[in-house]
Amino acid sequence: MTEPGTKRDGGEPPLASAPHARPWNELRLTPREAAEAAALASWCAREYEDAEDPEFLAEASVIAHELPKRLRRFIARSRLEERPHALVVRGNLVDDELLGPTPAHWRDALTTGSRPFSFLLVLYAGLLGDVFGWATQQDGRVVTDVLPIRGGEHSLVSSSSRQELGWHTEDAFSPHRADYVGLFSLRNPDRVATTLAGAPLGELDERTVDVLFQDRFLIRPDDSHLPVNNSTAQRGSGEFEEIARAVERPDPVPILTGHRAAPRLRIDGDFSAPADDDEEAAAALKVLRELIDAELYDVVLHAGDVAFIDNHRSVHGRRAFQPRYDGGDRWLKRINVTRDLHRSREVRSGGDSRVLGRR
Ligand SMILES: [Fe+2]
Questions:
Q1: Residue 267 alpha carbon to ligand 1 centre in Å
Q2: pTM of whole model > 0.85?
Q3: Is position 10 within any domain?
Q4: 281: which of 68, 179, 216, 255 fits an S-S bond (Cβ 3.0–4.6 Å)?
Q5: What per-residue confidence (pLDDT) applies to 15?
Q6: What is the Å distance from ligand 1's center to 235 Cα?
């Protein structure tokens, strides 16, 4: 019997040839597949006002059925695995001239030539789950922009540059954090590396693992959720009070959860601490930090590469780099994906709202 999927597809190229050679799963689109995906995104960009349009977000997972079949198979099969740290789709078409210069600030990114890529990122994300944004991040946008901002070179958020962006689980403080963080690289002339690491289970002793599974750690919101990193007009509303409470009085949580053979990891290198006076938790956290530091590896996302980082299996960050501020800087579109939007209903204003923290 022919393997399902192969007969009807004729000359379709195989999925990744050595699927277990790296800690992430990877697919390189053929030029034809990349052209098909780009054409679908262009159609969406003509049909809908922007990628935040509620009607588009509601339709995206259906429109995504028209993406190339090999890509859909790659995502569908990878999302059931618990091994890969990320799913990487390389080879999307990005015309550097049509894209236009990298804006100086994320606020200025909506009206640029990057618009079709926001649509395409939402379509890809629709193969994994439901997309959402945070009321307290980039003014509540669903598709956000990662680019260096002048004056923030040494900050602890993604608009930093000269300082390495430390490894973290995305929004580790929140029970509603993403299952996947999607990144669409539009420009990366200096090959600045994204960093990844999984839970270093083989290196941890039994007792340390026990402690990491217990509610003995405090994880606070990162600085991207602070009013200073949002527009002035958006500040002062209730959503930031929630963040302030989580900064002042975080509830103790475990760093590891799930099955001991393949636990889920929740940690932010810059914003995690042991519960007060808990020396055993402090020692376990120290060991874990050192092991993740040692395990951290580089993945370069070139223009046209898309990565969906598994936010439970791995932490991510970014190496330091020298910003240009000449319109040619590194630039990525970013999106949060949950496998189930309903889980966060308590922090959304309505069933169809995509913005967490605006009740
Ligand atoms: Fe991140």
A1: 12
A2: yes
A3: no
A4: 216
A5: 60
A6: 22
CATH number of the structural domain spanning residue 214: 3.60.130.10
The CA-atom distances, in angstroms, between 54 and each of 51, 131, 141, 142, 274 are 8, 11, 12, 11, 41
**pLDDT tens for each residue of 130-167:** 999 999 899 999 999 999 999 999 998 999 999 999 99
Residue 79 within a domain: yes
Distance 224 CA to ligand 1 centre (A): 10
Say if 160 falls within a structural domain: yes
Residue 16 inside a domain? The answer is no
Distance of CA 333 from the midpoint of ligand 1 (Å): 12
- Token pair belonging to 344: 């966060």
Between the CA of 246 and the centroid of ligand 1 the distance, in Å, is 18
User: Are the beta carbons of 204 and 285 closer than 8 angstroms?
Assistant: no
Question: How many domains does the chain divide into?
Answer: 1
Residue 178 alpha carbon to ligand 1 centre in Å: 10
Give tens-digit pLDDT for 189-221. 999 999 999 999 989 999 999 999 999 999 999
- Taking the C-alpha atoms of residue 125 and residue 303, their distance in angstroms, rounded to an integer, is 18
Q: Which residue range(s) make up the domain with 39?
A: 22-351
Evaluate whether 355 touches 348 at the Cβ level (below 8 Å): yes
